[in-house]
Design goal:
Helix 5 packs antiparallel against helix 6 (103-123). The model is unreliable at 12-25 (pLDDT under 50). With 175 residues, the chain is mainly alpha-helical. The protein is elongated and about 60 Å long. The chain has a domain at 50-152. It is 78% helix and 0% strand. The protein is built from eight helices and no strands. It is found in: Membrane.
Length: 175
């Protein structure tokens, strides 16, 4: 590229093409104790939250046979559907909060919320109670577990990001 061509390009383009002149960053070891713990923690967070979504059919059958006898399966199905919807709808807000405060507080809130939701479902007798506990509270709490786990994992695994994501996200696969 000639000098006259570079003058016509925006500054951002010329800066991105000149990055090869900068010295490369230190080649740091990517798999450290901390990154391994992040990977294990992200896997556990996914297992505890997404595992419930994958096992929803079992919960639906149990609720229909024991806890919610007078409700139709269609009504009970809304609990699982709304739970996943609540996770996805609250994830952008959790992501913005993650950028401001970091993962620790979000993971604590998500863990306490998910535990609270599971304990409250055991005490529920009415449809609206199960809906509030499992669909709303557990769904939002799952966003507090999944979003920081994904975001933190991508910070610790730059070169092997696909491997790290594959390890934690195999739980999403339905058999």
């Amino acid at each position: 590229m000639s000098q006259s061509d570079e003058k016509m390009l925006p500054e951002a383009v010329t800066e991105s093409t000149n990055t090869s002149t900068q010295s490369p960053a230190k080649d740091e070891k990517e798999l450290t104790n901390r990154s391994a713990f992040v990977l294990i923690g992200a896997f556990c967070a996914f297992f505890c939250s997404v595992g419930f979504f994958n096992a929803w059919g079992i919960f639906q059958e149990y609720y229909h046979a024991h806890q919610l006898l007078k409700n139709s399966e269609f009504d009970i199905l809304w609990i699982g559907s709304f739970s996943i919807c609540a996770m996805y709808l609250s994830s952008p807000a959790v992501g913005i909060t993650y950028d401001k405060v970091g993962p620790n507080m979000l993971l604590i809130i998500g863990s306490i919320g998910a535990l609270f939701a599971i304990l409250m479902v055991s005490l529920c007798n009415e449809y609206y109670q199960v809906f509030l506990a499992q669909a709303l509270v557990f769904g939002v709490s799952s966003a507090f577990l999944v979003t920081p786990s994904l975001s933190t994992l991508t910070k610790y695994f730059r070169k092997n990001r696909a491997l790290g994501m594959g390890i934690i996200s195999w739980i999403w696969l339905d058999y």
